[in-house]
What does this fold into?
Amino acid sequence: MASMLAGTRGFGISFSSPHQNCLVPKSNSCNALSPLGQMGGAQQGSKLKEVRGRIKSVKSIEKITKTMKMIASSRLKAAQTRMEKNRPFYEGASHLFDFLPPPESTNKTLLIATAADRGLCGAINGSIAKMARSIIKTSPESYRLICMGDKAAQILGKDQGPRIAFTFGDIAKKPFNFASAAVVTEKIMKEESFDAISIIHNKFVSAISYTQDIKKIPSPVVLLEKPELAEYEFEEDQRLWHVEDLVEFQLTNTLYHAFCESNAAELGARMAAMDSASRNAGDMLKQLNITYNRGRQAAITTELTEIISGAAAVSS
It folds into this structure.
């Protein structure tokens, strides 16, 4: 019996207990082929399972981004049509204010930042916040902030919270029309005193391009002091009342114009962002599939090598 055991030691057979016998590789080369080693089937299988999970999640993300791109592209056409119809009306109604020079100095300016309600549309919301911060930085004590859109309030609220008078959220959930802009104007005119109003918004250029624009409106009191307004006739006892109505109408007109431009720019930016995300997801899927196929081939090769090695050991 001892001689038999001595003869089998060269083949790596050991008996750890009276009830168990197994093949235990002794060399490093054999350990690399073992299921318990670095290249073993158990560890390789867990890696393949992880890669399969990543492939499944990336496919889900790709479906979502493609769907969001389709929705944005379908809504962009309607938003662009509404914007193009609004531009002539806005330009004609604001013709008077184009001839009036902006006030030289103001003690209090209302800064209205118009952004989107949701993200996933590139840097369109961050650009508005950046522009608002740069304007406020010139004279922090003379600016009061109003945010239109949930993202404007979220981004600017981090460092400009005490300066925010009030916010208007969910502006795109229901159709934002001229009447909705009039409600916002009424709240501003009733609750805030100002020397001038500055409205910053994104201006639509194309489906993949936009810029930032700013519109300025003087207060009724400041507007009455303009000598250019003397060319127009008013009833003297109702002069201020007419000018207040004129400023209120212009503010409503500008807010609606800003929304139309911002909404079209937002949908174009979201469509471009989702298209880029879909392409990135497709590239990632290609790399993951290559990694998965290589890992599966390595696992098959490892298992075949283990079977062949075991069979050779038994036959020897």
Notes: The mean pLDDT is 82. The chain has two domains: 2-60+284-315, 66-276. The two ends are 19 Å apart (CA to CA).
